[in-house]
Design brief:
Structural class: mainly beta
Radius of gyration: 24 Å
Helix content: under 10%
Distance between the termini: 58 Å
Largest sheet: 22 strands, antiparallel, barrel
Length: 643
């Protein structure tokens, strides 16, 4: 029966005329993350909450650290735990940082040991774009995608050919540089990029004097070869290195600074990661049937140092193979896409914390987890109607098997109004650190943890005016998380250990966005999020109730000069402090703050450009986490060349 149905679909597709291609010349109106087909899908055909930050926006805002620009996305909260290069967590719609799946050029980049991606290790490449897909996406991607998916994509040599290089310097002993070489022929394109960021840093301890600095390096290569019209090979290789100083928290209960960040000489960490992907794509039926075989890997090693040498460390590898087959059929008026996928994944992890000779030392042998995921997805577009559904079953050798699903639909009226809604489920498996992590006297893992489960829905309305020059929209969302993993401090030792909650965690809120380009020289973008995130009626930590951003870019008529104003507001939120000598956590209210950045650039010649920016223009004193100071006003400037 299955074979008959499959042959019938091929017959229908073969009899259908070729579908018209959307105008995707600028690359900003299509996304690849919202469908497992791997094809470019127009944003207007996706009845889901998705935000695209294009290469021009990254350039206008002079983005050097990727997590900074994510503050402009509705539903996204960012917490940096120290200076540049320090652990940076992203939360979407009030979920945890490890509930967000992060892809870089299609590669899963989360640290297999930690179970999440540290955005402090990702510096911006020249010529890139970001897609942020919000809501439960486990039915497409499996574990990790409870809150959504963030996909950072470097542009190919065909999309952005040429050579560019920039160098800049500024406050806090900051120096950075980047270069990109890219090109394309009829059958081959390439893009090579390299970025470096150094900062002497700032004191992150209140009243401290030790500057916490960092060095970060990123390099990538992306190659595409199309020997025939129906066959394409793609290769991606990426390297990331971060060497960042950190400060510890005062653990002496007799000290007046107990529980606060203090100067900690010779404390730092090194994070090295290498990622790779190879894919082969074969198309048939005039491009309507696409089959893609992909292999990818990630290898991450993180080591933390104290004045006495290695303090703790870990290694993790992920190997993943996927086969995706996607078939489009129908007509220009009614288009269907059916996609099936198989994902086979293995994660290896190992604790590299030095042994002390104690029988209670952490286990340093290698452990592994394997998972097989089966995905089915259906997408329909018919005029203004867009419908979709997906289901995924995961067979895991360590945790209970899971089936997740999602349905979504939207309708665009002739007035430019689009109504949309979606409902989905998600799952997040415990990470190795949660299961088996160990730090003598401070933390011990729990191998009996269960996966976290999520379900939620959203409904939204979008409006376009003036032939798309103005757009705005609103989305309401609600999510329930069960079996949430949290950190407990059981008596009598009060050593931290994870456990599953018996109560529910609920998040709901509203996301607003507006974008306008009334004239070619002016671009306006704004977003606002109101969030209510509570666990058993108690406000969850590091979830601001209100987040907003505004960006305005103005360019001269000849486009030689442009300036960008960025305003980012982070509302009041709750954090946890350990200032009680009993080690019981104390909830503290963190004050809201608003940061203003101003950037400008001037094109001296066709090939040379001068640029500069001021960050935290009004020198606001604020904290992103309790007890850790942040940088004041800073100025930066440099030169960019392009050929």
């Amino acid at each position: 029966m299955l074979k008959t149905g499959f042959v019938s679909l091929i017959a229908i597709a073969a009899a259908s005329p070729a579908l018209a291609n959307s105008d995707t010349a600028d690359g900003a109106d299509v996304v690849v993350t919202a469908s497992r087909s791997g094809e470019d899908v127009p944003v207007e055909d996706i009845p889901a909450s998705i935000t695209v930050i294009d290469a021009q926006a990254l350039e206008d805002r002079q983005t050097r650290i990727v997590s900074d620009v994510l503050r402009d996305v509705p539903g996204v909260a960012v917490n940096r735990t120290g200076g540049i290069g320090s652990l940076t967590q992203i939360r979407i719609r009030g979920t945890e940082a490890n509930h967000v799946l992060v892809l870089v050029d299609g590669i899963e980049v989360a640290d297999p040991y930690q179970g999440e991606y540290d955005f402090g290790t990702l510096i911006a490449d020249p010529a890139a774009r970001i897609e942020v897909l919000r809501g439960q996406q486990s039915s497409l991607y499996g574990s990790d995608a409870i809150g959504g998916v963030i996909h950072y994509i470097t542009l190919s040599g065909a999309e952005a050919p040429g050579f560019t290089a920039r160098a800049e310097a500024g406050s806090f002993g900051t120096v950075s540089a980047a270069a990109r070489a890219a090109g394309a022929s009829d059958a081959f394109d390439y893009a090579l990029t390299a970025s470096w960021l150094h900062s002497d840093g700032i004191p992150t301890a209140r009243g401290g004097s030790r500057k916490v600095g960092a060095d970060s390096v990123g390099a990538s290569a992306k190659l595409n070869w199309r020997p025939t019209e129906t066959f394409k090979l793609t290769g991606v290789l990426r390297y990331s290195h971060t060497d960042a100083e950190t400060n510890n928290t005062d653990g002496d209960p007799t000290s007046p600074t107990f529980g606060l960040t203090i100067d900690s000489p010779s404390v730092y960490f090194v994070n090295d990661a290498i990622y790779g992907l190879v894919s082969a794509e074969l198309t048939a039926l005039d491009g309507r049937w696409t089959n893609t075989l992909t292999g990818q890997f990630s290898d991450t090693e993180r080591t933390s140092y104290s004045p006495f040498g290695v303090d703790y460390g870990d290694k993790g590898q992920r190997y993943k193979g996927s086969f995706v087959s996607s078939l489009r059929f129908g007509s220009d008026a009614v288009s269907h896409r059916v996609t099936g996928a198989v994902d086979v994944e293995r994660e290896d992890y190992r604790n590299t914390t030095p042994s002390s000779g104690s029988p209670f030392d952490a286990f340093t042998g290698k452990r592994s987890t394997t998972n097989v995921g089966l995905v089915g997805q259906y997408e329909l577009t018919a005029g203004g109607l867009a419908l979709g559904g997906s289901v995924r079953h995961d067979d895991n050798n360590r945790f209970a098997n899971a089936t997740t699903w999602r349905v979504q639909g939207g309708y665009r009226l002739a007035t430019g109004t689009r109504l949309r809604a979606a409902y989905g489920t998600g799952v997040k498996n415990p990470g190795y650190y949660e299961l088996y992590g160990y730090s003598d006297g401070r933390y011990i893992g729990n191998p009996n943890l269960k996966p976290e489960k999520s379900k939620g829905w959203e409904a939204g309305v979008d409006q376009e005016l003036l032939d798309g020059k103005v757009s705005f929209g609103a989305t309401y969302f609600a999510t329930v998380l069960t079996d949430e993993i949290y950190t407990s401090y059981p008596a009598p030792t009060f050593v931290a250990t994870p456990a599953n909650r018996a109560t529910e965690s609920r998040q709901h809120g509203v996301e607003l966005f507006a974008s306008a380009r009334p004239i070619p020289q002016l671009r306006l973008d704004a977003s606002y999020t109101h969030l209510d995130a509570k666990e058993n009626g108690v406000e969850e930590v590091r979830r601001p109730g209100d987040i907003a951003s505004f960006n305005a870019t103005f360019a001269s008529a000849d486009e030689r000069f442009s300036t960008t104003l960025t305003v980012r507001h982070n509302g009041r939120f709750v954090d946890v402090a350990y200032t009680d000598p009993s080690y019981a956590p104390v909830r503290v209210s963190m004050k809201p703050y608003t940061l203003v950045n101003l950037a400008a650039r001037y094109r001296v010649t066709e090939s040379i450009q001068l640029f500069g920016r001021v960050e935290n223009l009004f020198d606001v004193d604020y904290e992103e986490i309790f007890g850790t100071a942040t940088s004041g006003i800073g100025a930066y400037g440099g030169v960019r060349v392009a050929f």
